[in-house]
Amino acid sequence: MADAPHGLVFPLDPAGQNRTDGPPRRSTTATGRGVVADALRPVDAVGARAAERETAWRTQYLPWFRLLVEAGLATPDDAVAVARGGLDSLHARMRVMTGEDDGSDVALADWPRSTAGFGQVEMHGAGEPLRELVLPYRGERLRGDDVRRRVEQWVLAGVVEPTLAEAVDAVVANPDWLRLEGRTVAVVGAGSEMGPLQALTRWGARVAAIDLPREDVWERVSDTAVAGAGTVVAPAVEGRPGADLLADVPALADWLAEQPGTLVLGNYVYADGATNVRVSTAVDELSRRLLEARDDAALAFLATPTDVFAVPGDAVDQALAAYSGRGRLSKGLGRPLRTVSGGRLLQRPYAGPADPGLNDSLVPQQGPNYALAKRLQRWRATVARHEGRLVSMNVAPPTRTRSVVKNRALAAAYAGAHRFGVEVFDPSTSNVLMAAMLVHDLHTGGGPRHEHPWQDEAYAAAHGGLWRAAYSPRSALGLAALLGVGGARG
């Protein structure tokens, strides 16, 4: 995504509107801080006022994103109120440039429709559909009971929640689910490494692929489509596939609303920096319009494991037992490290037994815009599910994607994470596992319904061990990076 100001943009910063040294400034900090405060306001007015007064947002945003989860734990209605408050605030604040030379913009709800809509191109697979779940894992292709055994080993190691085994077992036992007959799955961010395009086309599904009108992206998408066994359709202008989410949401909403079968809108977008919030807001506006236009529309998301989650009591117990059961060497090294770091290194994972506990795996290097973009998706999932819509929202494992490994600090931390009980997945494994979870959710009404939204988020979470490891994740991050430098370079 280009960062040039076009289409969906942040609001103008009042302090910078009358600049003479360049175009008016659009503030990401003021927007992010304001959205967090507005999300807190319905349930924690004191916290909202304190968030508004935070002067060092870029470096001190972590506690506020933690508070957003804490504030919603008292009752299910509180969690929904936080989510709705955040969504309403972001939609009220973000703007759409009209294309006029004076830089004028309009509200998101007033996004002008383009005069021309999208045509469509179709790509058909030439292969035979895979009729069973095949999970790539460390050079092997696991099937049937081998898939079940692998998931059980992850459960025993604390890498995934036990409920993931239930979900995967259901998919293995029902291979006819894989084709997703009678549905069109819109994969927004079709070129994403974490997206399900390849798995779905191998299984014979019908996919509506949406990504930028870039030749390299659509070469990959076309190759994937032809190698598969399904049908891939894409929005197109004069036969050229692709769309710009920052500019084309109204036309995309019209195009998707006409797709046959039950519509599933899957959000797999990612962009660097502030553009991540812009494209995530664009997909959310697309979601809002499609939910309004179609009673059958379902939503799908992948939550990042590097966020704050309420977690089950047994996850807390396993993590505390791991902390208590450290070897003599680990305990001996831990004390001086905590002393010299002012208590920041190798902290206990949780203060004590709790149900739910609060796992804080936010990574400062990812920044407040990344945190807001990912939290936006969780908010939409919470509200849509509360309103009775089918939602597939799953915590995806830490994965060596290009967007992660290009950040040296994160790449090194991932390379050393195994020393602290965290498994980082290859993209091929994460991709198929999360696609299987999507299939499970679409055939089970979004998975089991729980009393509180945090329980829906925790169901079948593949957090890589971040919830059940012996140390608070952020307190081990620096040492993991130090130990993983060689592996990351390799």
- Percentage of residues in helical conformation: 40-55%
Please indicate the count of domains.
2
Radius of gyration: 22 Å
pLDDT average, as an integer? 92
Low-confidence stretches: none
Give the name of the CATH superfamily of the largest domain.
NAD(P)-binding Rossmann-like Domain
* CATH fold group of the largest domain: Rossmann fold
Question: Which CATH architecture of the largest domain is right?
Answer: 3-Layer(aba) Sandwich
Q: Quick one: how many beta strands? A: 15
CATH class of the largest domain: Alpha Beta
Let me know the largest β-sheet: 8 strands, mixed
Model description:
Helices cover 47% and strands 14% of the residues. A hairpin with a 7-residue loop joins strand 2 (95-97) and strand 3. With 490 residues, it is an alpha/beta fold. It has helices at 28-40, 45-52, 57-60, 62-70, 76-93, 144-157, 162-173, 197-203, 215-227, 245-257, 274-293, 313-324, 328-340, 367-386, 402-405, 408-416, 427-443, 453-458, 473-489; strands at residues 8-9, 95-97, 105-107, 119-124, 134-137, 140-143, 183-188, 206-210, 231-237, 240-241, 262-267, 298-303, 308-311, 357-360, 391-395. It contains 19 helices and 15 strands. The chain folds into 2 domains: 8-110, no CATH class; 121-315 and 342-489, NAD(P)-binding Rossmann-like Domain (Rossmann fold, 3-Layer(aba) Sandwich). Strands 4, 7, 8, 9, 10, 11, 12 and 15 form an 8-stranded mixed beta sheet that branches. A 3-stranded antiparallel beta sheet has the order 1-2-3. A two-stranded antiparallel sheet has the order 5-6. The model has no long low-confidence stretch (mean pLDDT 92). The longest helix has 20 residues, at 274-293.
